[in-house]
Q: What sequence folds into this?
């Protein structure tokens, strides 16, 4: 059997194991180890097993991820989402469907200090969904706006996907964070307009909203103050060059803990949950990284990545068409694979080809993050839809139907970013003076 056939067989086995319920990281690790042993030899595979996990886990660069995860947990248990939703509801509440719009805006703001999809869904679900339910909102609109809005945290910094992408491509995480801000805002605007269109087509999906005075609106902004301070310290300090991404993550975790104490939420039970959830999420991410690295060694010795890149590059097509094919591949894989695993598995294969086509590393990172966000609300996996269904006790089919119009918003935002790459590149250039 040729090396290419062995590599393809390994990938098929890995996908089957994932669908059978095996942990994604373990599936990649298992296939990578056995595949490397079959191509090289068992002794070499054991040697790799003895050295690779330890060297990966002890990489200083990886410390940025657990610290941002810990910061997100402190933010989650501090209850900052309540103030964000209250302010958004006061400003958007008068409009028909205003609470759904407020949910999207609050998800975007919460994602700016949390960056965790499940945390955003649970936080906003517990706050916003009862309000929408009591006021007669259709479950499709309620669940669809929540599941879609929560994906914004995967793009607006601090984004775990962009952090991981920056680590494996050795790209400035600060540049990636800056590049994700405007596309995230654009996507949030597209989601809000989607709510407007949905209600125009079917006014029964949401009732008229409540009216609030200007004084009430201004007072509600106090609920956003702590979030703004945390975002300014972490992201602003990084952009100003006061500290690195790793230092920013540590400072962010410390400030988030102070906020938690200030809001009197730092009781022993909450602190225990924060630390436990942070450890669990970090271990899950590290397991995926270890598995992806082991699988990467296997694929490297089979020369499959280079062969695939050469095959795509040899197509007699314009670079834009080839790029569209790559994006379509990501859109399909994003529907069936975990986002972190997809980045680790495919970026080493695709990035050299993307660079050869004349596209930048930062630009590509934001693009694939946007594409993978789409996978969070599309079947068969649809992580965001599943979490929303479980958190709100809404049938999964209804969540998918509610999220369907937001897929069009994803596509519109995506086309705009493709047509106008300055949306991604402007802020990194303005802050750092260059972009890779």
A:
């Amino acid at each position: 059997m040729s090396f290419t056939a062995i590599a393809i067989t390994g990938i098929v086995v890995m996908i089957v194991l994932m669908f059978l319920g095996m942990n994604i990281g373990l599936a990649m690790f298992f296939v990578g180890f056995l595949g490397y042993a079959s191509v090289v030899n068992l002794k070499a595979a054991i040697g790799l097993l003895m050295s690779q996990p330890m060297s990966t886990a002890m990489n200083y660069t990886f410390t940025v991820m657990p610290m941002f995860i810990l910061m997100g947990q402190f933010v989650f248990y501090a209850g900052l989402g309540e103030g964000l939703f209250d302010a958004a509801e006061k400003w958007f509440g008068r409009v028909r469907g205003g609470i759904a719009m407020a949910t999207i805006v609050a998800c975007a703001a919460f994602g700016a200090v949390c960056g965790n999809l499940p945390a955003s869904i649970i936080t906003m679900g517990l706050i916003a969904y009862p309000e929408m339910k009591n006021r007669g909102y259709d479950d499709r609109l309620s669940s669809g706006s929540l599941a879609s809005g929560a994906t914004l945290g995967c793009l607006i910094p601090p984004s775990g996907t962009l952090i991981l992408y920056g680590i494996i491509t050795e790209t400035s995480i600060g540049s990636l964070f800056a590049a994700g801000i405007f596309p995230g805002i654009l996507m949030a605007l597209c989601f809000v307009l989607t709510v407007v269109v949905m209600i125009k087509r079917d006014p029964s999906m949401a009732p008229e909203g409540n009216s609030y005075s200007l004084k009430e609106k201004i007072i509600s902004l106090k609920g956003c103050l702590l979030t703004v301070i945390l975002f300014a310290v972490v992201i602003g300090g990084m952009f100003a060059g006061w500290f690195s991404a790793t230092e920013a993550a540590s400072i962010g975790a410390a400030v988030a803990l102070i906020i938690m104490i200030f809001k009197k939420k730092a009781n022993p039970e909450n602190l225990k949950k924060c630390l436990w959830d942070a450890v669990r999420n970090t271990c899950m991410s590290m397991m995926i990284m270890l598995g992806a690295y082991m699988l990467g060694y296997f694929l490297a010795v089979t020369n499959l990545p280079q062969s695939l890149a050469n095959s795509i590059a040899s197509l007699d097509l314009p670079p834009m068409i080839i790029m569209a094919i790559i994006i379509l591949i990501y859109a399909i894989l994003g529907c069936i694979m975990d986002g972190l695993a997809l980045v680790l598995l495919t970026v080493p294969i695709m990035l050299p080809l993307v660079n050869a086509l004349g596209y930048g590393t930062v630009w590509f990172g934001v693009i694939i993050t946007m594409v993978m966000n789409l996978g969070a609300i599309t079947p068969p996996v649809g992580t965001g839809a599943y979490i929303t269904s479980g958190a709100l006790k809404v049938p999964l089919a209804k969540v998918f139907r509610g999220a369907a119009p937001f897929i069009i918003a994803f596509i519109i935002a995506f086309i705009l970013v493709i047509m106008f790459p300055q949306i991604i590149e402007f802020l990194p250039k303005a802050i750092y003076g260059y972009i890779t």
In short: The chain has one domain: 3-432. Residues 268-302 form the longest helix (35 residues). The chain is about 80% helix and 0% strand. Residues 3-432 form one domain.
